[in-house]
Amino acid sequence: TKTEVKQIAKRAGLSIAFKPSQDICFISEKNYRAFLSQRLSSVPGEFVDAQGVILGRHQGIVFYTIGQRHGLGLASGKPLYVIRIEPEHNKIVLGDKRELYSQKVTAQKLNWVAGKPLPGPITAAAKIRYKSREAAANLFPKEDYANICFLEPQRAVTPGQAIVFYKGDEVLGGGIISNGEIKMQNDRAKFKNEVLLHFEL
């Protein structure tokens, strides 16, 4: 837990043990957009679907996150979710709930506890956000990146967030998610067969 880590840091005499938590998560949802508006320039752009069809206009990509459904400001006959953000085009891709799930992920900026990439492939557990559960995955470590194949689809895999790898209680390492390939949930059985056949990204 966070408390246990702070206690270990304190015993080791590390200054981080006394550092208070300060992050954007301490800003209430009501004031979140106002906080960002005061500090970041936002450029309105287009909402599009996976085929590139324009669905409407967004207020700026800084105000949206993968998996978001509410606050889009769109009238639609079905629920729409943010499934991808394309900052290079200033576009936000919307889709249905199924399109939020990914089974293949690439991570970069890796940090291995052993100090070097582990020989792969590795069967381990991976966690894509602090609130999510560990999920079984096959890891294919490379020199400066790793491909991760989840056995079950993961919801709202977000580029820029951390992914951490575990073997039981041991932390193997982690990295930063660089992309998550969208896969429909009904492809689950097919994907499992690919993994069993030593499928590698």
Tell me the CATH topology of the largest domain.
Elongation Factor Tu (Ef-tu), domain 3
Structural category: mainly beta
Strand content: 35-45%
Terminal-residue CA separation: 33 Å
Reported CATH architecture of the largest domain: Beta Barrel
Mean pLDDT over all positions: 82
Number of domains: 2
Poorly predicted ranges: 182-201
* Share in helix: 10-25%
Largest sheet: 6 strands, antiparallel, barrel
Order of helices and strands: HHEEEEEEEEEEH
What is the global morphology? globular
Pfam families: tRNA_Me_trans_C, tRNA_Me_trans_M
InterPro entries: MnmA-like_C, MnmA-like_central, MnmA-like_central_sf, Rossmann-like_a/b/a_fold
Domain tRNA-specific 2-thiouridylase MnmA-like central: 34-95
Domain tRNA-specific 2-thiouridylase MnmA-like C-terminal: 102-177
Structure in words:
This protein has two domains: 32-96, Adenine nucleotide alpha hydrolases-like domains (SH3 type barrels, Roll), CATH 2.30.30.280; 100-198, Translation factors (Elongation Factor Tu (Ef-tu), domain 3), CATH 2.40.30. 15% of the residues lie in helices and 37% in strands. The protein is built from three helices and ten strands. Strands 5-8-7-6-9-10 form a six-stranded antiparallel barrel. Strands 2-1-4-3 form a four-stranded mixed β-sheet, with no helix packed on it. The protein is globular, with a radius of gyration of 19 Å. 20% of the residues are buried. Residues 182-201 have low confidence and may be disordered.
